Amino acid sequence: MVRFCSLQSAVEAAVHDGDVVAMEGFTHLIPFAAAHEVIRQGRRDLTLVRMTPDLIYDQLIGAGCAAKLLFSWGGNPGVGSLHRLRDAVEHGWPRPLALEEYSHAALATAYDAGAARLPFAAFRGSPGDLARVNPNYRSVTCPFTGEQLTAVPAMRPDVTIIHAQRADRDGNVLIDGIIGVQKEAVLAASRSIVTVEEIVDALESGSPNACILPHWTVGAICVVPGGAFPSYAYGYYQRNNAFYLAWDAIARDREAFRAWIDEHVLRSRPESFAEHAARVA
Amino acid sequence: MSLNTPYTPDELMTVAAARCVENDDVCFVGIGLPSAACNLARLTHAPGITLIYESGTIGARPSVLPLSIGDGELCATALTTVSVPEFFRYWLQSGRITVGFLGAAQIDRFANINTTVVGEYDAPTVRLPGAGGAPEMAAACERIFIVMPHSRRAFVERLDFLTSFGHGEGGDHRARLGMTTKGPVKVITDVCVMEPDPLTRELTVTSLHPGTTREKVENATGWPLRFAGELAETPAPSARELEVLRRVRLETENAHKGKEQACPPR
User: Fold this and answer.
1) Alpha-carbon distance A199 to A165, whole Å?
2) N or C: which end of chain A has fewer CB within 10 A?
3) What is the pTM assigned to this prediction?
């Protein structure tokens, strides 16, 4: 049963210390406001899951929320390293971070299997050292052809958090543009939080084939305009590439990072994201 | 501009990469140099080329080069946009993509690449971004082009981690593993072009860029390097190629600096 509530209340109810948490959005619709709320509430020992950790997990890792990371590509796209992720892996700061590493194809398929409530995903794997360092890469024999395929366990997060353009008053959610793996991630999870730009009377998807999560598949909906900043919400506001470039210097230095988190996360609120929101008329 | 227009090693590398793709290719495009090369090809000799970014944008025609593979510009100009699981399963792993470009932190003589760690996996000296789409690209694209600057640190005798399989241990290693695609067919660096030997699959220098010497390339490579009997000189970029590449890069730089940009259409 979908619940409309504040982001603070949604995170309090759905995200617990030690949970497996997926925050998805493939470079688009990244739920930054929700991640900041998780940092503010001081969650610890999380296993974070995300195909592309991006700045959002750099922030959560640097703030000490994570014990483990499941991922497939961890960089600042087009810019360089995620310095907080690297500092945690290379120097254990602010705490050591265990890694469980996949390729994009493996992790995307694992979410797909999770959404289908299947126990594992099978695909034509590629030889390489990933299978050597990740014991969750196994193999399975096709019962029809005898072909050896690679298998990874289905991804079933305790909670998935996404950002979407809008929901209607019944709680149906529209995801538009680059849809990434969000539908699969929500359907694979036990609980979910969706932050949206706005609540509307009618979704106006413009297509009968739009990517929609029906209200009975969604846990909590929170209105947080601008909540995907500095990533973007297609049809609302553009990716702030300048921020992605500026993050490199902030994240490179532990003190600069702490000061940024203090000012923009700990002493801030979800409402502050609204200044980044704008809707195309 | 005259034929003697000066150009940078990076521009030559990008232009040489662009010339590898043809009008009817379907390209898996990564951010950075591959994106610049593929869009340069689209804006010059290959207007019909299909560009696919791993964000699921099929047939993207960006006017500004994206900073990330998921910029709104890609979705707004694409023929269609599919989910990420669909992209990898229906489009990449099914074998529908003809060309993939890869870069790497390390490469070995059989064009296997490392984008995961420098040093030990459990205690790395440098933690790199990881696999992303590369392992399955290297397996499923019909042919792979690797583009990266030439240095002893990058062209190594032994990889610290094998992220994406090139020609394995050489010879028919790919075929023995059941792969039917060609794998890496060319490595383009800032000093030369290398191609795998038809039999052993060991990378062999087939073309030197203008102004480069064999010694310079040998010194930048961490294994005893083989050269083709008939060594070509890489053609310099044309005035038209340089003009288009510089215009696109300038527009991109301006667009990424700007904080306020026009919103993509819904």
Assistant:
1) 9
2) C
3) 0.94
Residue ranges per domain, chain B? 9-257
* Other Cβ atoms within 10 Å of B86 Cβ, number: 17
Report DSSP state, residue A155. P
**Contact assessment for residue A48 and residue A21, using Cβ atoms and an 8 Å cutoff:** yes
Report whether the peptide linkage leading into residue A94 is cis, meaning its omega lies within 30 degrees of zero: yes
B91 secondary structure, DSSP code: I
Q: A216-249 pLDDT, tens per residue?
A: 999 999 999 999 999 999 999 988 989 999 999 9
The pLDDT tens digits of the residues spanning A70-120 come to 999 999 988 999 999 999 999 999 999 999 999 999 999 999 999 999 999
Taking the C-alpha atoms of residue B165 and residue A99, their distance in angstroms, rounded to an integer, is: 22
The residue ranges of every structural domain in chain A are 3-101+158-275, 104-153
Beta bridge partners of A45: none
Q: Please report, as a single letter, which amino acid is at residue A140.
A: V
Please report the number of interchain residue pairs, chain A to chain B, with beta-carbon separation below 8 angstroms: 192
* Cross-strand pairs, A69: A48, A99
Across the interface, of A90, A103, A236, the residue whose CB is closest to B131 is: A103
Contact B256 A242 (CB under 8 A): yes
Calculate how close chain B gets to A129, using CA atoms only, in Å.
5
Q: How far is CA B80 from the centre of its chain?
A: 24
ipTM, two decimals: 0.95
Superfamily holding A3-101+158-275: Glutaconate Coenzyme A-transferase (3.40.1080.10)
Question: Which residue's entry shows tokens 């703030």?
Answer: A63
What b/e sequence results for B159-198 when a residue is b if at least 16 CB atoms lie within 10 Å of its CB, and e otherwise? bbbbbbbbbbebeebbeeeebebebbbbbbbbbbbbbbbe
Length of chain A: 281
A26:B177 CB<8 A: no
Number of other CB atoms surrounding residue B108 within 10 Å: 22
Candidates 3.90.550.10, 3.100.10.10, 3.40.50.620, 3.40.1080.10; correct CATH number of B9-257?
Answer: 3.40.1080.10
Strands A138-141 and A148-153: antiparallel
Contact: A105, B92; criterion CB under 8 Å: yes
